[in-house]
Fold this protein.
Amino acid sequence: MNSKNIFRILSAVAISAVVQTSCTEKIDLKLKNSSPQLVIEGSLNNNPGPYFVYISKSKLYYQDNTFTGVSSATVVISDDAGNRDTLTETIAGIYQSHTLQGTVGRTYKLEVTTEGTTYVSLCYMPTPVDIDSIQLTTETDRKGNTKNIANILVRDPAGVQNQYRVISYLNDTISDGFHIHSDRLWDGKLRSFGVPQSDFKTGDSLRVDLQSIDAHIYTYFNQFNQNQNNFGAPAAPANPDPVYTPAALGYFTAYSVKTKAVVIP
């Protein structure tokens, strides 16, 4: 699923009770309603723009997950070099940049003003790290079923804190979720990262993006993953710590990216 669907699920989960079932007991849930919360999802990178910011409202547990855009917001992205770009709303809730070009080493600020409140988030764009190679292999499960999988080899720069996100595209279909890594325990070493998609067929096209992400965005994605993994536990999952001031759902990331592609033989 893409980021819009992920955060609609996140916000719905955060404002509802957890669904728990067993083999012998039927539980009648009393889900509480809550006011919709603002969701802001924006990103930019070191590739040419335009870049986009998505602004919407969260929904309740039983509502559909269609994108409900928030219109007429003022959206500005600026950097610490004095560049400033006011985005234009192209479709309800979707805002597009014009002149901005993401540059490695700069810190970016996203400002969103809507309903009389301005939400601000800052993010630094780290140096990109190359993908050494894509390795194709097979994996057999406990039932004896075999499928094709892929890994990427990454040589982590020594002496530098690095955080990564891996995204794959299989025949132009993007992978789901946040697949992230931190070099805290293996700084400067050659590492293998799993590619999110698998079970490739001969002739399939596979592209892998290695994003270098800021530390606080890594923390946000990590908290999101932990909360999703806890779904169904006794305590309801919470939202990750907000990256916006004042608090809003969603995230803003300025990442650098390196790409490698292969056609499955």
About this structure: The longest strand covers residues 249-263. The chain is about 10% helix and 40% strand. The longest helix spans residues 215-229. The two ends are 27 Å apart (CA to CA).
